[in-house]
Amino acid sequence: MKAAQVRVIESMQEYAPRAEERRIFLAGGMHNCPDWRHDAISAFRRTWPDAGADRCSLALLSPRRVISDSSGFNEAMVTWEHRHLALADLVLFWFPRGNAARPEQPIALYELGAAAATGRMIAVGVEDGYRRRPDVLAQLRCARPGLEVHGDLRSTVIAAVAALRAESRPLRSVS
Fold first, then answer.
1. Per-residue pLDDT averaged across 96-108, rounded?
2. Taking the model in full, what pTM does it have?
3. pLDDT tens, 6-38?
4. How far apart are CA 169 and CA 163, in angstroms?
5. Which helix (H) or strand (E) holds 62?
């Protein structure tokens, strides 16, 4: 039996979902903050195989900033993110402290609101010092009472893995 593997699909990469893998979209701060996705990917690579994960592979859908014009807007990137958010079994949201002058991460906040309202599976973490932390906590108390919001990236990753393991849909082994 193969060991559970973690593969990363970054922005603009073609991706064909595999029946034998679970998918997590890494949503959250992209601008004016550290590259937290690198740390998240490392944490998943350590945590996923150790959790057993029924030997099922994991695909991490990891957007990266792709700019094509002076405004910073890239429609192909927005389309890629929209499509891959829809493919995800779970969306992990991480809101890092980042740049104090511009920490809001409006697109990630929009994506969190949309995901929380639909009832889809999410894991949420907000670093102390993130200026919009009270807003995230208040909105989730309304939309998802009882959802634990984590204060560090590692515990957010662990919560995501635990949520997939607890899901009623059985994981299939990789053949």
1. 75
2. 0.86
3. 999 998 888 988 888 999 999 998 777 788 999
4. 11
5. strand 57-62
| pLDDT at position 155 over 60 | yes
Helical (H) or strand (E) element with 82: helix 75-87
- How many helices (DSSP H) and strands (DSSP E) are in the chain? 5, 6
Give dist(CA 163, CA 4) in Å, integer.
17
pLDDT at residue number 12: 85
Which has the closest alpha carbon to 95: 66, 134, 58, 47? 134
Q: Express each pLDDT in 39-79 by its tens digit.
A: 999 999 999 987 665 568 999 999 976 555 555 567 877 88
Cα–Cα separations (whole angstroms), residue 136 to 63, 65, 99, 152: 21, 23, 17, 15
Pair of tokens at residue 114? 């949309």
Query: In the predicted model, what is the mean pLDDT of residues 81-109?
Result: 85
| Cα–Cα distance, 41 to 59 (Å, whole number) | 10
**Angle ∠(108,109,110) on CA atoms, nearest 5:** 90
> In degrees, to the nearest 5, what angle opens at C-alpha 161 toward C-alphas 148 and 170?
115
State the distance between the two ends of the chain, measured CA to CA, in whole angstroms.
7
Query: How crowded is the C-beta side of 42, counted as CA atoms within 13 Å?
Result: 7
Which among 135, 170, 164 is positioned nearest to 25, based on CA atoms?
164
